[in-house]
């Protein structure tokens, strides 16, 4: 955790205390350990399933149906960009749709009140 935190700070100039567990898989004792080290575990409330090659329309539908105040949408970036074509097409529409519904976009620290 510390070496990753150090690397993030080196690259971005920002020291983070947030941790998103891979695949969202985390056990209570791991959360306790993170908390003792000063980290906060965060997760998403809306999985766009963009990673599986879903079309823009499918991604938009999933997000719009599940959108709630305080929601966190999980989106990905990785080397096989072709699987993300739907997400790339959907993202501007998603932002426009959510803004039209009155949603604002904030960073996780802003959402958490820090």
Give the helices and strands, then pairings.
Blueprint lengths: L1 H11 L5 E2 L8 H9 L3 E2 L4 E2 L8 H11 L6 E2 L10 H16 L7 H4 L3
Parallel strand pairs: 1-2, 3-4
Helix pairs in contact: 3-4
Structure, described:
- The chain has 114 residues and is mostly helical.
- It folds into 2 domains: 2-41, no CATH class; 46-105, no CATH class.
- Helix content is 45%, strand content 7%.
- It has 5 helices and 4 strands.
- It has helices at 2-12, 28-36, 56-66, 85-100, 108-111; strands at 18-19, 40-41, 46-47, 73-74.
- The strands form 2 sheets. It has a two-stranded parallel sheet with strand order 1-2. It has a two-stranded parallel ribbon with strand order 3-4.
- α2 links the parallel β1 and β2.
- The chain is globular, with a radius of gyration of 16 Å.
- It starts with a helix and ends with a helix.
- The model has no long low-confidence stretch (mean pLDDT 92).
Which labels suit this protein?
single chain; 114 residues
What's a quick, concise take on this entry?
By secondary structure, the chain is mainly alpha-helical.
Indicate the structural class. mainly alpha
Distance between the termini: 20 Å
Spans of at least 5 consecutive residues with low confidence = none
* Proportion of strand residues: 5-15%
What is the 3D shape?
A: globular
> Helix segment count?
5
Query: What about the largest sheet?
Result: 2 strands, parallel
Mean pLDDT: 92
